[in-house]
Amino acid sequence: MPMDGLTAGFIARELDGELAGGRIDRITQPERDTVILTIRAGNENRSLLMCASANNARIHLTTQRFSNPLEPPALCMLMRKQLTGGRIEGIRQVEGDRIIHVDVDVLGEMGDREKRRLVLEIMGRHSNLMLLNGEGRILESAHHVNAEMSRVRQIQPGMAYAAPPAQDRLDPEKMAWEALREKLEERREQPFAKALAGSVRGLSAATAAEIAFRTLAPGEDWPENTEEAARRIAEWMRRMPEMKDPRVEYTEDGEAADVYPFPFLSGNTGRQKAFPSLSRALEAYYGTRDQQDRLRQRSASMVRLLKTQIERCEKKLALQEEELAGAARMEEYRIMGEVLNANLFQLKKGAEEVSLPNWYDPEGGSLTIPLDVRLTPSQNAQKYFKKYQKARSARQIASEQKEKTLQELEYLEGMLLDTGKCVGESELEEIRGELIRTGYMKRNASRRQQRALPQSRPYRYLSADGIEILVGKNAVQNDRLTQGAEPDAMWLHAKDMPGSHVIIRAEGEIPRETMKQAAMLAAWYSKGQRSSMVPIDYTRRKYVRKPSGAAPGKVIYTHQKTAYMTVTEADIRSIQLAES
Predict the structure, then answer these.
(1) pLDDT grade, residue 520 (50/70/90)?
(2) Burial of 476 (0-12, 13-18, 19+ CB in 10 A)
(3) Do the beta carbons of residue 535 and residue 495 sit within 8 Å?
(4) 3: closest CA among 152, 153, 123?
(5) Mean pLDDT across the stretch 518-533?
(6) Among 162, 199, 364, 384, which residue's CB has the most CB atoms within a 10 Å radius?
């Protein structure tokens, strides 16, 4: 579930307990909507992430490492000036809503103590992060909102901060049971969970469903006694901070599906994993999700370009095959010309067609040849010889062009396949760099400059026998992986289709199960991913060679054998992924 008011309250209390009194030593802004505060608290450095993205707005401690721009954005520079060296006074939730205040005590320019406040509003596409001065005026924000964007509430530097319009709902920590009963009775025609969400501030649908599950008797749609239910819920809300026991619920495939501040009995309790802190749970849920969302956003234009170029190649290939089909008549033109030439003495000008013995026919049949009445028999023969020469030249050119088009199509499909394997910005930048090198993309001078990204790493799996299997994520990485492998290491690749280079880091005899798992990985990380009986070639690395001037990832090899693999996602998940 997205971070709702209930979760925001739990994380605010947790962070306040861990960071209050801590000193802000460093501030970075890896994304336009994300700020990292490095805080010295409890004799160690802690990284506080505050994110105001539309899909993954949140606040928690993080252990992730982020790449930062060469030039920090305006918000980052101002925060460094205003907050560095300041002490965290407190972190609190505002009236049960999805608003977090981080209050900071700083030393002003005149040497006296001043107050600054960071306000994180977690509200879907309206999420924002703002820095306020001691008088409550906005110094800067992650997103500016002008009058054209919203007539209700503007967010601009210099303006007085105004909280979002209050909702006619109850503060979950302060509400009286009488007020809750009254609100519920007003919504009696609604399902009980929906009535709860509309009565209490900050409750997501999932949290309201959990409260309803804990309140209603089995088979009950609405409490028989609303007063008793309101009393129980109000008391439960007051005791809620004591219930902290963060969990992440996972799917059958092992993906994080939801995060809870305590076990949700309405969920699948068997798949809920306990975490030592809500920060750790939130990072487990949001970390990969946020990274993948951002990668999809950044690769969207690249994917569109590759799909457009692939469509262009496919259309060009269809035209070239049509030309080759037309050129298939060239032998027929040659035979007609030769038969006419051999029988010129029998022919007269003005005939529309002629039927002559065809000595190329093993059965000795005749050949009917259309003629141009304006031409002499000799000129008609020459006309067919010219058609033959033209078709012959067209076939040669079309054949050469088709080969180039097929190579280009293979390259583009490989690049498109590689974008789907990206798990970090390094891999994406390597693909972008390759497309710039080959002229499919232009270097964008206005694009945000990043610090040098670390070299990307291949997927690292461990087989059932404990042997390391490396899988390249893109063509550039495939080259590095293969060229850096030991001569006797086993090399695998899907036959005649784009795919990853796979290396088994073992010499000598390789266990059968390890070979099988490596072949499964080669099939899965190829164009034939969801096909049956994908052919996988395997040979020793010493028999793999890169031709001079070949495109990244393009190799030739010998001494290969071929296995045929049908692989499912469950098969791949069964192989231990040591590093992605």
Answers:
(1) very high
(2) buried
(3) yes
(4) 123
(5) 93
(6) 199
